Amino acid sequence: MIAFFPTAAGNTAKQWLFTALDILQLPRLALLSRRDQATIVLYHGVIPPRSGEGIFNYRKKFIGPQAFAEQLVWLKRHYVILPLAELVERLAGPGQLPPRALAITFDDGYDNVYTHAFPHLRRLNIPASVFVATDLVQPGKPLWFDRLEYAIGHSRKNSIILPWDGAFREFPLSTLAERCASDQTIRQRIKLLTARAGSKLLEAVENQAGAELAKTFSASPYRGLSWEQIKEMQGSGITIGAHTRSHSILSRLTPAEAEEEITGSYLLLRQRLKDVLDIFAYPNGQPDDFDASTIAILRQNGFRAALSTIPDLAGSARNPYVLPRFTLDNTDDPRLFRLTVTGIRSMLSQLLRPRRALAADEYFETSAESYAKAYGEPTPEGFSFRERKRLTLEMIGPIRDQRVLDIGSGPGVLTEELLEAGASVMAIDIAPAMIELLKARFRHPRLEAQVGNIEALGLPERSCDIAIALGVFEYLSSDQHALGELKRVLKESGRAIASFPNLWSPWRLWNRILLAIFKFPWRAFQALSGHKPHPIQHREYTAAAIRRVARQYGFEITDFAGYNFKLLLFPLDRMFPRLTVAAAERMASLARTRLKFLATGYIVTMKKP
Ligand SMILES: [Zn+2]
Prior knowledge:
alpha/beta; 16% strand; 23 helices; TIM Barrel
């Protein structure tokens, strides 16, 4: 896959997609909706197109000055642009943000921020923040990915041979496209290595290529800001924050090394400058690039917030150490810029991305409380959770002195209600962290909790009166083992209450249509952002299929309801979450009627004979 010189087909698809979305006026609609959300954008730099520099800026990390100036004018027209510190402060208190608040950030600290971005910012009187990887400034050393790009781009050889997976691998460098592809592959590899192994591989590249950025760094377009430039910008609305010293990915370092990178850059900035932000920006900034220990280091050293590169709007419920940002690299095309900054692009990617990746993000962000908090949020997801829970409790009825098995318990979403109703509860979840959290949240003589899954429950035969499985079946590869296991652990006349996504709900139908339409241009999108396409695994059921499966395993269906009637289809549901919830609330009475096939999911009670 050559992600950065898109193929003709990919290019056509991309143009087609941009045009289609532009005609639909999605960016404009997105601006009208979700006024209460804040936006943080991320640039890396601004530089005029140049030639004869190897493969410099082939990933379009720096956009052109003309595009940048136009973007600023557009942002100023449509948003209230605040200094980042003010935006972060107002995020912490509900209702304090002006509608459509936005903050502008630059990462890394390249000299071109001063030469090509700052003049426009000053002219338009727009505040911005620069997060500096301080090695660029002092002692004035190139960052690792720039060394790589330079060595690959300036080598006089037609190929280089590198140690790779315990053997050797040849990387062709005959054409610019080959150089870009080689750079891409090696860069991704280094990101996954420990810092030590990564720098060894990088040195091998420089030795093999016979080109080293360090020798020409200060005259190269990879050079960093000077202290004088930084101070001058600080006098005109630019604030400065830390972004480590060497731009190492923090989760690949030991905690001591990570702390050194964070505090080293922060202390140096504070020694040299009067004002430094107590906000940090993670190198690379994806969910895998930092972890709970990184956040602990930030807290201990007095940082009150940190910026990721997870593309999303920033609402007030956010963890301040995982603030999202929209990256505006490679947005010279104004349509792509508008789609990115208004969140349409990330919405599409959430729709089309594999569930696993989404869950990983969400899981991380949570840690804990926010998963449970999702149940209380006024979002469509929160409403769906609440409806599912309400109907489940309604179906269960009185359960005093019964033994209830809660499979997929999460951090204990139903636990409190079940205990209050007098049941003894066995909570089971596949994620150890969830069980830990549940144990920390609830202590009760009638509560037990253990790690496990529905296909192997590890409980004695006929030991439970009721088994609940919400949001479980869709992630299995078949129903067989799960139903067999439920039948085994339930007593005679015991009941299983399970939820299933409804295949024919209009909302799911529409998502499938979108998926089919956008599959091709989406591939192009993914190619541009360097991701490989994945299939989406998420099973959906028809009412008939649920009845058939239940019968097959000897269960009798005694109750069948629909939950969450989502009338507003994607992307309107995401743009107008309150309206979506209000409409679904009005339709909730359809749960047990013939119209239940309109619901996004079913909840079913199955009785063991
Ligand atoms: Zn960076």
